[in-house]
Amino acid sequence: MSDTSLPHYSAIELRRMIGARQISPVELMDACIARIETLNPAVNAICATDFDRARAAARVAEDDVMRGVRLGPLHGLPLGVKDLQDTAGLLTTYGNVGLRGNVPSKDNSLVARLKSAGAIVTAKTNVPDMGAGANTRNPVWGATGNPFNPSLNAGGSSGGSAVALATDMLPICTGSDTGGSLRVPAAMCGIVGMRPSPGVVPNDARPLGWSVISVLGPMGRTVADTALLFASCTGRDATDPLAFPMDAGTIWPMESVDLSTLRVGYTEDFGVCIVDAEIRRTFRNRMSALSARVKTCEPIELHLGEADRSFDILRAEAFVAAFAETMRNAPETLGPNIRANMELASSISLADRAWAHLEQTRIMRKFADAFSRYDLVIAPVVPVTPFPWTELYADQVDGRKMRNYYHWLGLTYVVTLATNPALALPCGTDEHGMPFGLQVIGPLFGDGKLIAAAGAIERAFAIDPALARPRPDAAMLTTARPELRSIVTHPPIFEGVAPISKPLGSL
Known about the structure:
The chain has about 500 residues and is of the alpha+beta class. The chain has one domain: Amidase signature (AS) enzymes. About 35% of the residues lie in helices and about 15% in strands. Helix 2 (about 25-45) packs antiparallel against helix 3 (about 50-65) and helix 5 packs parallel to helix 6 (about 185-190). The protein is globular and about 60 Å long. Residues about 490-505 have low confidence and may be disordered.
């Protein structure tokens, strides 16, 4: 096989070929770097890189293979790390001007865990400023374009990871999710993003150690690739009070599921979310296709009450924990989305916080009751087709004005409140020819069963071009798009920090 073909193989097949000595980790790394250099100028998904160090790590991985050393499950696989996650010796900006020279001295717990499984940190992937919002654009690196049309939004906050996967620049990438940051970009870009149950992926960087709102999670091009990565993310961690000791063996290898035995409840809007009519039509079409393949597939009502207000308060609480000090000392470094959350927080009382936690508990129990009758609950991921990245967020959905910059993400943040694991499953395209994703939701701490069931749906749909994962046209992505860098107002500063490669797109 040619080196240029290697990035197109699944992560599972690449790992198998490395273990069988059919390919070298060095060959794979060189092929991925070449593809990044070719395609990234068109989408701006990759930000900081250190290719020299990545190649050196690949040579060590090759030596380990040749010496017969016991190999980890991700041995030799190039890894993209979301730029909200610290990487030792590699620039980590969070997309924020105040951190544009930040080079951490240690990896965060997720990165360390994946490196110990054999993955090789290759590049950082782009994010919104401080991860706030579902449009991957910031004043340090610029915007990330959708791989199916780079003038459109790629979603966020894990948008750089989603695009890197969709374009085959990298075989595995990390993400994180508060209100939909794993699921939204996955759906918009045609890949898989998994929001795990709280604590299943330990997080040593969560400011509020007991909060279940934000989680870390895996992203892949297929359910199986995502499961392979996910299994290496789990485990105990003394620094995370929520760390849940899930057995990785329940995630990978994936359990075999008979699709015809599954009981599915579905909802277009959870009874509280605003969704465009065209998305509803596409979703109904997918549920019609699924209903012929499963035991039951019927609409479900959850009666979720004031989910929007509950999320407003709990999100604001988390932002105060993370950004109050910066707001006091350097407010000019915070983007408009962060400031909007902080302003909301200033009007919230202790009684409001107590009410929000009570409402979240009630919502969680509504979902728990549903899973006494169903194996899966399925909903859309995003209520609109991708819009231009120049628009900070969807100001209107179905003709109704959004209350704030994240209101349009109700379909995903409702599930965040419930705390159930949820996976964005690519499922053909919408009426505009853009990727469409199903939000497949499982019972709390039933992450392995969710992965297995989603894999069964993926396999059943793969034989139908209208339902299979869509692929972007790589030929369309060979022309650089400098406009993606046009929102940069503060160029990255590298003086006095560890040497890294220049960010692609700003050479």
